[in-house]
Amino acid sequence: AVVQRVSASDCTSDVLSLLREKCPEVLSMVASTEVFPTYGGGPKGMAEKFNVPYLGKLPLDTNLLKACEEGASFVDKYPSSPATSPLNGIVDKLILALPVEDEEDGDEDMQD
């Protein structure tokens, strides 16, 4: 085996290239973890305890981080990503729960 010295710079692209070549199935895996402990009802229990609505689960998704770092719309750029559907569901719940004005209503207020 040939060992190459790697500088302290980011080697992410090198690692991804090697993974694509040697074991592409690893890149298609989705990791999921519970951030909140499940005892005490987990995130749903915490929402109930603090009397706030529970909006849902959002899986860990590297594409979400990429979109945030790029300032891009996650759901437009990665429509088939694992977190897209759950995120849309959370947004739908927020839209229903919050008083959202139509653009026309907002324009009229600005003209006054």
Describe the structure.
- This protein is mainly alpha-helical.
- It contains 7 helices and no strands.
- The mean pLDDT is about 80.
- Strand pairing plus helix content: what structural class? mainly alpha
Rg, rounded, reads: 21 Å
Total number of helices: 7
Mean pLDDT level = 80
Strand proportion? under 5%
Helix content: 40-55%
State the separation between the terminal residues, measured CA to CA. Answer: 73 Å
Helices and strands in order:
Layout: H1 12-22, H2 24-27, H3 42-49, H4 62-70, H5 74-77, H6 84-97, H7 103-111
Task: Write a compact overview of the structure shown.
By secondary structure, the chain is an all-alpha fold. The protein is 53% helix and 0% strand.
Which descriptors would you attach to this protein?
single chain, 112 residues, mainly alpha, 7 helices, 0% strand, extended
